[in-house]
Write a structure and sequence with these properties.
Blueprint (H helix, E strand, L loop, with lengths): L21 E5 L1 E6 L15 H13 L4 H17 L2 E8 L2 H11 L2 E8 L5 H18 L7 E7 L7 H14 L3 E5 L3 H11 L3 H7 L7 E5 L5 H9 L3 E4 L1 H6 L7 H7 L2 E4 L12 H16 L7 H7 L2 H6 L17 E5 L11 H8 L5 E6 L2 E5 L2 E2 L4 H17 L1
Parallel strand pairs: 2-3, 3-4, 4-5, 6-7, 7-8, 8-9
Antiparallel strand pairs: 1-10, 10-11, 11-12, 12-13
Bound molecules: zinc ion.
Length: 400
């Protein structure tokens, strides 16, 4: 795979793909998800975050086996490839199983084993130790396509003491962190009551804010929080569909961007979305901001596509490796088929991609120069087998 002018006459491609009526874009980057939650798709509907988590999701998660997580992750990898995602940032349990699914599927990922203390410091320490063990063992796995982080779940599930230890461990390993921040007003109010400050102020106090901090959601922020985030070069994953579905609120992305904060886009888990379609996510990302500010000029189609590609790469610390079609970067490329009626005419390809296309328009997916899907046929996974196994483990899980 080569990007640039075709100068060298000796250059001969092994595979030639006809790009007629197709548009090449950098592979889409999903900055925040929990891939194996494909198994819970449609299982926890129309519930507020605390009920969704505590009464539905956590009891189901306590029953998950490593194989369930592997099958759920494979289903998520298949869905991601089909919708043009080439890289995703994930936080979950038994993350080694997700790494194996990533390796098999050919995708690229930034993985973190989730750490939930839940007022049990022994459990917190054990989960941190497991998170460190995973991060060390799998950084550079899958031919270098997997990088790792530490994944403390949130400020309402991890104590400041554990978060300090987590940050120290991440610094020692030279890796970043991935955490949920200010998603729910109720949880942000709880932090304020318990610690006397905002979530961002608390994270600053315990030194967990830096250029390698990936903060998912960031809805309930003050102006000062945004300035602190910009100063510490914190990265944000904006997850519009999950925020709408759980009724968490609307992140003030326009203000975050003007404060100088890098923002990527994520789907969050398939139990709160309910899919992993980054083309659909871009559309909601732009429309929700226009609605929030009652201003159609906020988040143009071009700016939104950048957030799902190069800005997403920046949010994951991979902007020198992926995120744009450029000489010297890894060949993560997606071809979108523009031959359907809803993509005609094409006055503005950015507008067609962000406002008219969806995941089913993705024709070809290439990661690291390898062809993962061509003409919608996934080459690295047996789609029927992956879907049947996903259905089987999900049915067993909910009947156990
Ligand atoms: Zn999440």
């Amino acid at each position: 795979m080569y990007v640039g002018a075709l100068k060298a006459p000796q250059f001969k491609a092994e595979i030639v793909i006809d790009g007629t009526d197709k548009v090449a874009i950098p592979g889409l980057i999903n900055c925040h998800t929990h891939l194996s939650m494909t198994l819970f798709r449609g299982k926890a509907e129309d519930e507020p975050l605390s009920t969704w988590l505590e009464q539905t999701i956590w009891p189901l998660e306590s029953k998950l086996t490593p194989d369930d997580i592997y099958q759920g992750a494979l289903l998520g990898c298949l869905e991601s490839i089909k919708a043009g995602t080439t890289t995703f940032a994930d936080m979950y349990f038994h993350e080694a199983q997700v790494a194996k699914a990533v390796d098999r599927s050919g995708l690229r990922a930034v993985l973190a084993q989730g750490i939930i203390e839940a007022d049990d410091c022994k459990r917190g320490e054990r989960m941190l130790a497991e998170g460190i063990e995973f991060a060390e063992a799998f950084n550079g796995y899958g031919g270098g396509r997997v990088t790792t982080r530490l994944g403390p779940h949130a400020l309402y599930t991890c104590s400041p003491k554990l978060l300090v230890q987590t940050q120290e461990a991440a610094a020692n390993l030279g890796i970043g962190t991935h955490i949920h921040v200010a998603e729910s007003k109720q949880k942000s109010d709880w932090v304020k009551e318990r610690y006397g400050c905002t979530e961002i102020e608390l994270l600053k106090r315990i030194d967990l804010l830096g250029p390698d901090t990936l903060a998912a959601h960031c809805i309930h922020l003050t102006k000062l929080d945004m300035q602190i985030m910009a100063r510490h070069r914190v990265k944000v994953s904006y997850n519009p569909t999950a925020n709408m579905k759980i009724g968490s609120g609307i992140p003030r992305v326009k203000e975050l961007l003007s404060a100088g904060v890098s923002v990527g886009i994520g789907t969050d888990g398939p139990a709160s979305n309910n899919n992993l379609d980054m083309l659909e996510e871009m559309r909601f990302a732009a429309l929700l901001q226009k609605t929030k500010y009652m201003d159609p000029t906020v988040l143009s189609a071009q700016q939104t596509l950048k957030m799902a590609t190069i800005e997403g790469a920046r949010a994951l610390g991979l902007e020198r490796v992926i995120g744009s079609l450029q000489v010297g970067k890894k060949a993560d490329v997606v071809l979108i088929d523009f031959s359907s009626p809803h993509l005609k005419p094409s006055h503005d390809p950015y507008a067609n991609i962000v406002y008219s296309a969806n995941g089913a328009d993705v024709d070809t997916v290439i990661v690291d120069g390898n062809l993962l899907m061509q003409e919608r046929h996934v080459k690295t996974l047996d789609a029927n087998e992956v879907m049947q196994n996903g259905q089987r483990v999900a049915s067993n899980l909910t009947s156990r």
